[in-house]
Each structure stands twice: as C-alpha cells, then as structure tokens.
Amino acid sequence: MRRAQPLARLGLASAGLALALLAPRMARADYQCGDQTDDCHCAAYDPYPCCSNGGNCTWWAWEAACCNWTVGLPGWGNANQWVGNASLDPNYEVLDYPVVGSIACRVSGTYGHVAWVTAVSGTDISVTEENCCAGCNYGMRSFDYAASHFDGGFIIRKDQCACKPGDPEQQECGNCGQQSRTCGTDCQWPAWGECSGEGVCAKSQTEAQPCGDCGTSTRTCNDTCQWDAFGECAGPDPDGGLEPCATGQQGECAQGTKRCVAGNLQCQPDKEPSAEVCDSLDNDCNGVVDDNDVCGAGAASTPGGVGVPSAEDTGGCGCRLSPPALPLGSALGGLVIGFGLGLRRATKRRRRRKT
Fold first, then answer.
1. What CATH architecture is 7-157?
2. Tens digit of pLDDT for each residue in 301-346?
3. Which regions of the chain carry the CATH code 3.90.1720.10?
4. What secondary structure does DSSP assign to 29-75, as a single string?
5. In contact, 280 and 255? CB cutoff 8 Å
6. Digit-coded pLDDT (tens) for 147-162
7. Quick check: 154 and 102 in contact, CB under 8 A?
C-alpha cells in the first residue's frame, strides 16, 4: 500500500534539517522494501533491512506500527525476539489473544515471524505481512491465519486496550431499562445499544389525582418502574378546620364544623351524643331536654338546672296537703304586720272608752 510522501522527503534541505533537529533518528536501513516505502511520521526511520527477495517481516511490522501508532519501535532484533523484548519494555504489553491493531508474533522457527493484525474473526485473524523466505516475492500481502499460529502472543501499546474482545457489558438506562455492548476486536468499547425493557415511570416518582369533593389520591413508582395502586383519598379541612355548619341533628349535636372525610365534605358535630344529665340541655341529642327522669325524685339539680318537688312535698299527687313553709324573711314580715294591726285595734278601744 502506497502512502503520501512526507515533507522530510521532498528533497528540500530546510525540511530535512528541521526534522533532524527536532527528533532523534535511528540509522536508516532501507527506505523501500518490496512495493512499500518508509513514508510514515514517527520521529524515526525504519531500522530493518529489506531482504533480497524484496520483503522482510520485521521491516514491515515496524513500518505498520510507525504508521498506525505513530511510534518508532526500538530495534528488537529477529522476529522471534520481539515478544521477549516487548515484555521488558514498560511502554508495551503482550496479550495472549489477538486484537485489531496489534503485532502478531511467532517464536517458532529459526527467526520467527511478525505481522500486523487487521481483522479478528473468532479464532482466525487477517494480517498484512512481508517475508524473507525464498520464493516469497510478493512484497507486502494480506493473509489469513489461525490465531494460534502466532504462538508468541500479540504486542500492543501500554493501555491500548480498554477491554477484552468479546466481553459483554450491561448498564441500567431510562426507567429500569437495560442496554448492552460488546468489546470490539480492536479491544475498545463501542457505543451502547438501545435501551430496552423500560418501565412506565421513574423510580420514586409520584403522581396525584383529585378525588371526591375535597381530596386527592397519590401513587408512587416502585423499584421495578411500575406504578403502585393509588392510595386513600384524603384532603385538608375547609378554612383550616374553622368553618362552622349545621349538622341537622338536635340538641348538643346541632352545631358542627366542616371536615374533609375520605375526600368528601361533611358537617361533623362538635359534640357527640352523651348520657343525659339534669342540666337543661339535650345531651343525648334526641330532641328532649333532661328526659329519662334525670331530674326525678330526690335528684339534685346540676349547675344551670332546675329541680322539681319531691314526692314527700306533693304526697305523690299534683296538689299540696299543707301550706308551704314561708321563707324566713316572709315570716318576720308577717309578725311585724300582725303586731301593727293589734296595736291599732287596742288604740281604737281606748278612745271608745273615753267617749
């Protein structure tokens, strides 16, 4: 594959001088190997030679890393030495599984083999490669292998991989939904998939609706993002519970206050019916004051009440058998009046005798 010529190779002395001053350069082996040229920018020249057949696996693997990682690899020796040297370099890692954008390494054989991984499909991989073997006069080629052919592993840059290809990952989304993704063959996470299996509401969300004359009912979204049933209907009392009303009942139960009961307005009595007592009130709210003989024979009047004559006073009937006893004041007045009348009569008798 051909690449655009870099500025450093335009033949301009000033550009070549600038690159020489700005970046260290390794001793250059071959600018071209087969149908490929060392065109990529990575602050170094490819240090490996090209074999007489127009190919070399180390020349091409170094060039592929320069083009894709923008890194000039160290001189790691023969192909079967790359894994050992990369393992000792803190800037690189060696994986036991292939990923797109890694260097596949075979340690078997006299010199081993290295290639650039371009695709991964199950246990098979596709690579681009060159080779020094006799009769391999193809320059750079694309080829498919079983991943196990590269028994040394796969070199990547340190922290190049975010995940292991094929590993799944899930997360919650929306209203209790789930979305997933699978680590790609380039050992990077792709975008999350669509959110599926969502509920109808968000956890802990509440919703209210009016009910009755004065109430509201609420419901809450549960942990499965589904609505629970609406709760009881309830509401505040009108005017803060201070609005008076007539209950339509009698006696002490007649006066009431407006209340919101189960979502409906009601006039509830301020007093509930109670046992009747002798107090001139209709305590049991039946329309009769002091009924049930609460003020009967021998009953003492309660404050504010009125007593009635006892059976001893009336003899058991509605008329009196003897004059009622006069109060002390009335008796004294009678004595004074009687004394005055007697004195007047005595005076009249004396006058008649004189005449």
1. Alpha-Beta Complex (3.90)
2. 444 444 444 444 444 434 344 444 444 444 444 444 455 545 555 5
3. 7-157
4. --SEETTEE----SSS---S---TTS--HHHHHHHHHHHHH------
5. no
6. 999 999 999 999 999 9
7. yes
